[in-house]
Specification:
The protein has 94 residues and is mostly helical. Helix content is 79%, strand content 0%. The protein has three helices and no strands.
């Protein structure tokens, strides 16, 4: 699953922007822990980071369904893409 995609991804830039924001937010949460901030404050921020990651994952799934799956169906690769999608969903949702 490390091969490059050769078709359009409508939401790629949005996903990258969201992940960049999550990265920055997570760094600030780490700083909160380093600086000895109150545990409830840190937990609240960890929950916000998780929610932001879930939002990025949801957008990525939407992008995958709208682009990768459609592309695969049009090129006769639907069985492989569905197998890969199921594996990714099983890893994400436990």
């Amino acid at each position: 699953m490390t091969e490059e995609h050769n078709h359009e991804h409508k939401h790629r830039k949005q996903i990258i922007n969201r992940l960049s924001k999550v990265e920055g937010h997570l760094r600030s949460v780490k700083e909160m822990a380093i600086n000895g901030r109150q545990c409830p404050d840190i937990l609240l921020q960890i929950a916000a980071v998780q929610k932001a990651l879930d939002g990025a994952a949801k957008l990525l799934l939407k992008d995958h369904l709208e682009n990768c799956v459609v592309h695969a169906v049009n090129h006769g690769n639907e069985a492989q893409v569905i197998e890969e999608l199921n594996a990714a969903i099983n890893s994400y949702i436990r």
